[in-house]
Amino acid sequence: MTTPRDAAVDLRRAVDSLDEHGLGAQMHAAVRELYPICRSITGEGLRRSLRILQRIAPLELREVPTGTQVFDWTVPKEWTFRSARLIGPDGEVVLDAARLNLHVLNYSAPFKGRVPLEELQEHLHSLPDKPALVPYRTSYYQEAWGFCLSEEQRRRLRPGEYQVEIDTALADGSLTYGELVVPGKQLDEVLVSTHCCHPSLANDNCAGMVMCATLAAMLGGMKPRFTYRFLFVPGTIGAIAWLALNQERGERIAHGLVAACAGDAGRLTYKRSRRGSAEIDRAAVHVLAHCGQDHGIREFVPYGYDERQYCSPGFDLPVGSLTRTPYGEYPEYHTSADDPGLVKAEKLVDTLRRYLEVFEVLEGNRAYLNLSPKCEPQLGKRGLYRSVGAQSHAVADQMAMLWVLNLSDGTRSLLDVAERSKLAFNEVLRAARALEGAGLLRPLAALGGGR
Amino acid sequence: MTTPRDAAVDLRRAVDSLDEHGLGAQMHAAVRELYPICRSITGEGLRRSLRILQRIAPLELREVPTGTQVFDWTVPKEWTFRSARLIGPDGEVVLDAARLNLHVLNYSAPFKGRVPLEELQEHLHSLPDKPALVPYRTSYYQEAWGFCLSEEQRRRLRPGEYQVEIDTALADGSLTYGELVVPGKQLDEVLVSTHCCHPSLANDNCAGMVMCATLAAMLGGMKPRFTYRFLFVPGTIGAIAWLALNQERGERIAHGLVAACAGDAGRLTYKRSRRGSAEIDRAAVHVLAHCGQDHGIREFVPYGYDERQYCSPGFDLPVGSLTRTPYGEYPEYHTSADDPGLVKAEKLVDTLRRYLEVFEVLEGNRAYLNLSPKCEPQLGKRGLYRSVGAQSHAVADQMAMLWVLNLSDGTRSLLDVAERSKLAFNEVLRAARALEGAGLLRPLAALGGGR
Amino acid sequence: MTTPRDAAVDLRRAVDSLDEHGLGAQMHAAVRELYPICRSITGEGLRRSLRILQRIAPLELREVPTGTQVFDWTVPKEWTFRSARLIGPDGEVVLDAARLNLHVLNYSAPFKGRVPLEELQEHLHSLPDKPALVPYRTSYYQEAWGFCLSEEQRRRLRPGEYQVEIDTALADGSLTYGELVVPGKQLDEVLVSTHCCHPSLANDNCAGMVMCATLAAMLGGMKPRFTYRFLFVPGTIGAIAWLALNQERGERIAHGLVAACAGDAGRLTYKRSRRGSAEIDRAAVHVLAHCGQDHGIREFVPYGYDERQYCSPGFDLPVGSLTRTPYGEYPEYHTSADDPGLVKAEKLVDTLRRYLEVFEVLEGNRAYLNLSPKCEPQLGKRGLYRSVGAQSHAVADQMAMLWVLNLSDGTRSLLDVAERSKLAFNEVLRAARALEGAGLLRPLAALGGGR
Asked: Would an 8 Å CB–CB cutoff place C271 in contact with chain A?
């Protein structure tokens, strides 16, 4: 009989046998391949990127036509980017998006013409407090043209007429996103969502895209209890479009994570869902508490990545966000310094490992009923307890068994047991299995898992 | 259309335009005028003091006749104080209440006669551990005569016969209190109660009396949502009398504050109501948390000022107490050192400001409903969001709007939003108004405000 | 009329008049008398020990026959211990349980024969990290023979053949436990349970046995509100047997404590029941908070003494454990160093005192109703309040009365009042009695006390 617990076993095995070196190198190579592509919330760069991810996991590309109404928003015209150059008064090429695609204001309208420096200034974006870095800036919903450049570059601009050559197009087309579903034994879903609209920013979010695709590939080989849905969506509008067009599926989301910033050297950080202590929140907090590393736990705020949409009050889905250094908190964030050197192969693997461990908790968590609830059962006669008594401390798995027996009164799940006992979830799960094997415990359908 | 939010706007404007210097001088002058009057829980000194406050705000004087039964208490005989002198063996005037009215035991029975020092001692009150200060002592409900003097004065008393000349009277009359009602759009009331029975003690409570009268005058020019009731009552018996004679009005008290010790140099302190987290408690704690100064928050204890009565279990009204240094905690408390020099003009204004800010929260607090609850509405197209995106941090009012939208699911008030977001209430209120103006938010009648 | 509060008065009197010196000496003498007896979970040593306790309090001995099924367990064969000696290759007596009964593996099967050192090693138990101490080890449910010895002794064993002479017997008989019931006015019970199966270990648990017998004797002279049941049971199997054979009595347990380690020099420690904040938990935590000494509070864990059984999920009784240094946390624990020198006479009395104080709380705790709930009643006219007013601080019993009046709204017990006011329970109880005497308060039947 295949029981729903198998995926938890598979996930533990996957975690314990992660080939940190090989897998890390492979993921980092994919990050480097994605990095130079000029992505945006629509367009060919986005499609090309998703197709690269298809080599890791069989995600499908979906198209939502321009003009589609998605709640309060409208899918915009599709952006085509060909080239963008700024040529100085003496004819020299000052900026060329072919060298760094951040130079073009993302979603810039096309423009060709001569502009004096004073007028040009209004179309330039730089960072006075980080003078060596080129910022990432967008203008999705207000037609504008522009360039991004370093403050140092800007200061070197001499007066005179500049030739602007922005060869882009805004025309009817569609918004593209990637989707991959790993079917589970239950219809309830675990959502993993990551944004794929940022151009040359390696940690934010080539890293997240690659990690999610790798996760999807690993889960594809298991038979999980939950159905896992991976979404690779352009930020904000992509998540809104998916939610608008898949409302009945959204209702099935039992747990969810927004993935981003998956590869920098900073500590792991979990940002709670709006609900604050949903099972996904407790699972992620538990995994980080036992990860043996410094880590951060944040309360929900209505800012950041697409948890903003999943956690809007009309949905209020149990979706948190597991990242390394959070949104906006590393100095390279949304600048040209977020390049592949910022992403560490071993950190990509570490982030992946924690996602797998969170899934292990979700898969394995359920409530059990102690079938011998009056006094302790005699574990010794079942070979579950050492025979020589009176030693001061119970060994770890005996303690785990005693905790599971004591708390399995039908109102508590294994995650409750792990939280109260401060034992790691997988020790508790192992104890539950041993006790179930000895006929002392019975899983309950109703509690734990699901919502 | 005049909406109920107008008073919150008026209050913010009043706070932002407080004439600290002029108003402080004016309030301090009133404190100095009240200070020398010999007040008690009944009598002419009390009436004279209330009439001085009438020059600030149009409070009305009410009389409750001697012998009126008010719950477990009886309104006592009215005390008339004319003079009190103690003349030494050599004929010199040792104590004269005309110089400092604390010298007479407050509510002292009349007495005239010669008394040897040993017998006199039983009628003297001094403070061995504060030898230079004259204490304030009362004997309201047990007829007694006596003097208060400094320990130093007491030690200088030589043996011999002393002439006691206490010219007071205890006779049928009435207990007087002041009352001022600022009518609001709702019948629910905000109670502000202050005691006015203490004789020459400047901070306790000439300061509170003047601050409350000034508050009442300022509110008089607004059209608040709540009805504001200001009570200037003799301590304990006055509050009990009001509660006994106004039971149905007491039931309308939605929020209340007991004001006292409003002008010393110490930090602001809020003492919670017996309920502990009533809206008034949350409003006051919020205002102090954002006041930018050191401050104190105290749990309720059944001791202190008239919150003892308002928070008795038969009423359990949501009445806290906002003071500077609390009851009994400054060394000058209930002694001759509590003189006008202890009261600072700028502190009177600072205390007043915090009361106005608490009223702003009470007036402005209500629940709203996000009318576009599925995903975020597109603020940009309504001019509520900057157009160039991807900058790291939302500016403050964008954050306030996002918080209001995210939490306005009908179960939370703006104060809830302020508490959770850690933003100041008036930023949240401003955001709610902007969103309401854009048609994205609708105020709910049922929640927030009221009880 | 004898009211249910009498026992609380008697207990306070008992606490205040404890003859620390005499009683401590008496208890310590009993510990020394019990110490050398070779006890186990069955057998004559256990019976002899209980008969010694009968000289302190009239407990009754009960027998449960071998083979009785008690939940998942079976009462084992009775163990008879006569002697156990290990004789070396040269004929010298290496170990003799007559000198220290820890030397025989407790419940050792009989064995007589010659064994080479290598084979003998498998039957020896020592503590490599505490080389001078002999451990206490048992083998109740798996037939085995063995010796316990110090690591130093073990290292001195020379190769060769050893003569093993373990003269014990395992045969049908019974398990013995002691029981004493002090009848109360109510059928609800307070359980005090202590284990009496350990051989020569003075603190664990001759001390607990003696303290419980002394407590039982003291309570015997009172007329408590609750029925007090004292159990002197072999660990685990004894508690399980009692619970299995007395299920309807178990349901009447309103509060309970497991006593152990009652005499070491360490601080008092309370381990909460599985419920965590049952009345017994709150009472014990309150008593320790006011004991004026360093102390520890522990959360429930399903390990330790017989609270494991009382708090199993099928019972979930409100049973905590009040000890000095907890289970397994002192270096002498379960070794030959737990001898009468480890037990201090004054600590035995101190532990006893805290048990009496916990009983005082349980006996005295109930809810009262303030009969004058609107505003404060006038305490002064009833002689309960000083007449000269305006002093800064209320004296302690006035504060206690104000707290009791303020919180006695029918929903709170005196323990609630003590917790919130931070006053000692007996001050609160005294205030409640004074107010009841003045007709201001009425005890409520329904709340507080019982479950």
From this structure: no
The β-bridge relationship of strands A268-271 and A295-298 is: parallel
Phi, psi (degrees; rounded to nearest 5) at B416: -60, -45
Q: Other CB atoms closer than 10 Å to residue B90's CB: what's the count?
A: 8
- Tell me whether residues B390 and A311 touch, CB distance under 8 A: no
Is B17 an 8 Å CB contact of chain A? no
Amino acid identity, position C312: S
Q: Are A375 and C302 in contact (CB < 8 Å)? A: no
Inter-chain CB proximity B376 and A244 less than 8 Å: no
Report pLDDT digits (tens) over C95-151. 999 999 999 999 999 999 999 999 999 999 999 999 999 999 999 989 999 999 999
**Residue A346 CB neighbour total at 10 angstroms:** 15
Decide if A291 touches C, using CB distance below 8 A. no
H or E segment to which residue C114 belongs: strand C111-116
Question: Chain C contacts of B144, Cβ < 8 Å?
Answer: 387-388
Q: What is the β-pairing status of strands C189-195 and C227-233?
A: parallel
Structure tokens at C379: 């305490």
Q: What are the structure tokens assigned to B224, written together?
A: 């608040």
Phi then psi dihedrals of residue C151, to 5 deg: -60, -35
What does chain A come to in residues? 451
Which residues in chain C are contacts of B70 at CB distance < 8 A?
375
| pLDDT tens, position by position, A154-192 | 999 999 999 999 999 999 999 999 999 999 999 999 999
Cβ atoms of B245 and B308 closer than 8 Å = no
Interchain pair A378, C72: CB under 8 A: yes
Q: Identify the band that residue A3 occupies on the pLDDT scale cut at 50, 70 and 90.
A: very low
CA–CA distance, B122 with B126 (Å, rounded to integer): 11
Smallest Cβ distance to B399: which of A73, A137, A303? A303
Q: Which of C313, C316, C334 sits opposite A392 (nearest CB)?
A: C334
- DSSP assignment, residue A136? P
β-pairing, B253-259 with B189-195? Answer: parallel
- Alpha carbon of A34: minimum distance to chain B alpha carbons (Å): 20
The pLDDT score that the predictor gives to residue B385 is: 77
C-alpha–C-alpha distance, residues A16 and A431, integer Å: 18
| DSSP-assigned beta bridge partners for residue C63 | C176
In a 3-state reduction of DSSP, which class is residue B55? coil
3-state secondary structure at position B252: coil
CA distances (Å), B234 to each of B46, B249, B305, in order?
8, 19, 11
Between chains, do B141 and C378 touch, taking CB under 8 Å as contact?
yes
- Count of Cβ atoms closer than 10 Å to residue A157 Cβ: 18
Which residues, other chains included, contact B361 with Cβ-Cβ below 8 Å and sequence gap of 6+? B283, B286, B287, B415, B425
The shortest C-alpha distance from A30 to chain C (Å) reads 48
Unique residue bearing structure tokens 């009817």: A172
Neighbours of A339 (CB within 10 A): 18
Distant-in-sequence, close-in-space partners of A175: CB < 8 Å, separation ≥ 6 = A41, A42, A63, A64, A66, A68, A75, A76, A78, A234, A237, A238, A241
> C412: which 2 tokens?
């709170």
The candidate with the shortest Cα–Cα distance to B201, out of B213, B212, B209, is B209
Min Cα distance A370 → chain C (Å) is 8
3-state SS, residue C283: helix
pLDDT, greater one: A450 or A166? A166
3-state class (DSSP) for residue A270: strand
Euclidean distance between CA atoms B74 and B175, whole angstroms: 11
Q: Which residue in C381, C393, C406 is closest to B313 by CB distance? A: C406
For chain A positions 351-390, those within 8 Å of chain B (CB to CB) are none
Q: Is the pLDDT of residue A342 over 80?
A: yes
β-pairing verdict for A227-233 and A189-195? parallel
DSSP A158: P
Global pTM?
0.93
